[in-house]
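In response to the reviewer comment on reproducibility (Comment 2.3), we provide here a single inverse folding case reported in full, input and output, so that an independent group could reproduce the run without further information from us. The structure tokens appear first.
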């Protein structure tokens, strides 16, 4: 009973202060109205409870594992803000040495300083632009030369672009940043991960993978018209298939791989949509912050996949809310995963 109450208390803390005040005020009003016997009390009560239940569901589950990461090194791409920053913070809190890999070094240094001040851990910053394969190779080269071991690779960085763009490497940008460049990065760090085993690779994917399919004949989106959510979904589907095939290939070498959906999280992932109605300050301030989960809760499944000991036997799995998630039929297609792997190697000249 006391642990259940502690559980409820922790969840309650994830509600914003204004929400807590509003809900308490509602219930005081309800008590007064009940005392006066007014039916409004019933509506207020039902409305409040519905909001509580919905918000609780949106907040998601917490990683309950106490596993520590002393002596481990973790690379977190996009660790300078949003979900990546909170994951880096929690990994550092658990004793890992964290490498934040991101485009914006100034922002990453600020994030690293903030994490260090909270955890006292070692957090270092390295530049990585997933929009440039040359940058990925330089980063991997640096890590391979300077790091004795890498136990965790969190492929978290990602983007959501409203229009079709191509990178300097000639690939469609969403596909390269969210999938192809992390595929290359993982490939270049695989020997290091194997030598550091047991090690884990974690791909931060999305339920967005449900709303699309993967056409091996049009990976660069040259034939179909570009649409933000389907393109994003395709790259996230590719990430799940990547984790699946990676898990199969490294099964005998004690390197496990997972993919996950972090929840619907109030971060700056919509930054490229500034000016659009769904990126208005009103929506961000009201709808997103009162209904979506915060980045700390968004990082819970990332941390779960990084530390939960029982997952070792589940390599290749897709997770959501700190438990096995529902992946689409294509996301569970092993033949498609193998074909995508071969196509990706070809695109990157790795054959
Ligand atoms: N927010 C959600 O509701 C949600 C839902 C499902 C999945 N996800 C996934 O969660 C992951 C983290 O997203 P978030 O919500 O935390 O968004 P975010 O706050 O915008 O963080 C995105 C991170 O990716 C980095 N990044 C973007 N483009 C990059 C590039 N070309 N090279 C290197 N780093 C790059 C950014 O670094 P810079 O600051 O240096 O640009 C930033 O650190 C993404 O993969 C996203 O698809 C998010």
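Designed residues, in position order:
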């Amino acid at each position: 009973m006391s642990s259940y109450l502690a559980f409820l208390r922790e969840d309650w803390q994830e509600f914003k202060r204004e929400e807590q005040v509003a809900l308490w005020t509602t219930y005081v009003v309800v008590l007064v109205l009940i005392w006066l016997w007014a039916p409004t009390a019933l509506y207020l009560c039902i409305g409040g409870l519905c909001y509580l239940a919905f918000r609780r569901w949106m907040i998601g589950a917490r990683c309950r594992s106490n596993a520590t990461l002393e002596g481990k090194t973790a690379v977190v791409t996009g660790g300078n803000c949003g979900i990546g920053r909170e994951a880096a913070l929690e990994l550092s809190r658990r004793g890992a040495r964290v490498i934040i890999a991101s485009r914006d070094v100034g922002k990453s240094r600020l994030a690293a300083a903030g994490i260090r001040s909270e955890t006292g851990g070692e957090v270092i910053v390295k530049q990585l632009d997933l929009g440039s394969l040359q940058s990925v190779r330089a980063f991997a080269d640096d890590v391979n030369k300077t790091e004795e071991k890498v136990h965790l690779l969190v492929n978290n960085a990602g983007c959501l672009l409203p229009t079709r763009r191509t990178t300097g490497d000639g690939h469609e940008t969403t596909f390269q940043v969210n999938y192809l460049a992390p595929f290359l990065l993982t490939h270049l760090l695989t020997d290091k991960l194997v030598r550091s085993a047991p090690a884990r690779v974690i791909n931060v994917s999305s339920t967005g993978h449900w709303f699309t399919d993967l056409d091996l004949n049009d990976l660069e989106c040259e034939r179909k018209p570009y649409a933000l959510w389907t393109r994003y979904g395709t790259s996230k589907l590719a990430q799940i298939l990547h984790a699946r095939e990676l898990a199969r290939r490294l099964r005998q070498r004690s390197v496990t791989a997972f993919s996950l959906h972090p929840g619907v999280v109030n971060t700056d992932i919509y930054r490229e949509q500034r000016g659009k109605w769904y990126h208005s300050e009103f929506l961000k301030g009201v709808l997103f912050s009162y209904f979506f989960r915060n980045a700390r809760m968004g990082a819970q499944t990332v941390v779960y996949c990084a530390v939960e000991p029982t997952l070792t036997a589940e390599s290749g799995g897709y997770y959501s809310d700190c438990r096995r998630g529902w992946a689409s039929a294509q996301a569970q297609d092993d033949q498609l995963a193998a074909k995508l792997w071969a196509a990706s190697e070809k695109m990157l000249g790795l054959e």
